[in-house]
Design brief:
By secondary structure, the chain is of the alpha/beta class. The chain has two domains: 139 residues, Alpha-Beta Complex (Aspartate Aminotransferase, domain 1); 223 residues, Type I PLP-dependent aspartate aminotransferase-like (Major domain) (Aspartate Aminotransferase, domain 2, 3-Layer(aba) Sandwich), CATH 3.40.640. Helices cover 35% and strands 14% of the residues. It has twelve helices and eleven strands. The protein has a seven-stranded mixed sheet with strand order 2-8-7-6-5-3-4, with helices on both faces. Strand 5, helix 7 and strand 6 form a beta-alpha-beta unit. Helix 1 runs antiparallel to helix 12. It starts with 13 loop residues before the first helix and ends in a 12-residue tail after the last helix.
Length: 380
Amino acid sequence: MNPSRRDFFRFGAGLASASIAWRSKAFVIEKAVASRPGEEPGAIRLYSNENAYGPTARVIEVIKSAAVDSNRYPRLGYRDLVQRIAASHQIEADRILLGCGSTEILRIASSAFLAKGKRLIHASPTFEAIEHYAGGQDCEIVPVPLAPSFAHDLPRMLAEVTPSTSLVYVCNPNNPTASLTPRKELEAFISKLPESTLVLIDEAYHHYADRSTMYASFIEHPFREDRVIVARTFSKVYGLAGLRLGYAVAPAKIIQQMKRFATEDNINNLATQAAFAALDDAEAIANFIERNADDRQEFFNQAMARSLKPIDSHANFVMMNTLHPAEEVIDHFRRHNILIGRAFPPMFTYIRVSLGLPEEMVAFWRAWDLLPYPKNGMHH
């Protein structure tokens, strides 16, 4: 378990005091919570693992300024952004491919490397987009249940590998469980794969994971680069989920294979300019990471106070067992105008809660306390 979580009452004062503390910081961003079609007006949205605080004020100003060029295609911006991202990782630009969110990277990889007679292996549950896109390729899809530790069960995944296995998908930290698969175990797993098998590592929540012997990015600390594709996104810590921007890092020859399946002009001017500003606003990003760590700790404080034991989280969301049908719990929160994550089979009694603003989390726990269930007994 993450050492930072050993003292569950580190903050002591609870979510209400956390709200006051956050409001005292200069970088607090005040904004209304808009509703989507079909949602109740003013619904608290704790269901999509978004950055509740972003984008930064600097990024918002850049987006406003860039709007005047909305009549232009983003072709020059595409090239410049590729070079900027490559520079941030200290790699060559021909190893970068941009996408309309990292979900497009998953679609591209599925189109490039899966087909009839090929096999995809992924954990279950995990981010479902890869399975959705693979389904369109008429390939064999093999879901492997997570280990009891909620890490990827790499020995079982390896046992499913055949000569037709062309792609293995690993989301780390994993969505929806927010759990980590240890870096050393991933390296050992990758080393045993056939030369024809590629590994797509989804690092959407990379910035929220503490650097340790348990975790290290496959971009900053590469391993078997010839067979690893890394997907990243601007949707999470950068707060740009609504602008849809992600990218892949892989060997140049693999990027060339993937480019054939990318959508033409797949990013827009606003996303391009916002990404430049976000990459340059390092202090604000560091603040978002710090704030998320504190919000996450406070969630565990509140959970422990109620004899709950969520899965150890390395992301900006938390998953925990309610010991009751998840759909009932989800509906309870919906009736209180709070939207949490959907059910994630086969974890039918678990709920996933995205971390929101402090006052939103106060509302979450207030609604939790109204659940008509016994609330004693610690459990995952």
